[in-house]
Amino acid sequence: MKIRAILAGVLATLALTVPLSLPADNHEEPKPLTDVWYVIPKRGMEAEFEAAVKAHNQFRVDQGEAREWAIYVPVVGHKLGIYQFRSCCHDFADLDKFESEDSKQGLTRHWNENVDQYVDHYHHYLERNDWKHSHMPEDAGPYKYYGVTSWVWKEDAGPAAGIARRHFSKIAKEEGWADDDHQWLWLSRIGGKPVLMLVNPMENFADMAPTDPSFYDFLAEKLGSETAADVVFADFDSGFASSDYTIWTEREDLTPADD
Prior knowledge:
The protein has seven helices and eight strands; from the N terminus they run αβαββααββαββααβ. It is α+β, with helices and mostly antiparallel strands. The chain has a single domain (about 5-255), classed as Alpha-Beta Plaits. The termini are far apart.
């Protein structure tokens, strides 16, 4: 399937903590970084893994850890059995503070002694949140699901795709698409393959249905023709080698609240 078709479908619903709710567009932007761990438990040991994670997270709360974590699992996609641990919103200097805190409180040591035995492997990334070109107000939601489209950049990608992405968001935010029913967050991965992501929150599966008009129709109207919209989509398409779509839901039962 062409990336244009995928993007048109995703943007049609522009309605992980990330937090996946953000300050209103006219408020001060949060810090840009999310710390992200993908943890894949050993097959057949999921129950033991979850019990150990819940106990470990309570340990982190009891130790008074400065940052908060949210855990998400995929419900639709071709790679299930993944637990995504997310902590937002930080800058690079915060990461040094967290490393020092970890050493003093023994957070990683506790994980290694109690949870790691149930883990098959890990992936660790940082994600840079593009608040400027996103729309997810602080009073939005609550949401049960988060659709995440990921695009892998081509090695020889030029600037056209990035310009098109910003153009999409500028028109959406300035011309009336950005409202309570159309919300989105752009993310860029730091580490591993260069990946661009688009997050769309959903209250339920019915929220996945295409809107009428679609974002493609909205864009064509604002640009004056389908031909003009096709050019922008083609520019975006030019930057990527492949794409993937996964729907995640938060496992609040694994993240005890700080009393």
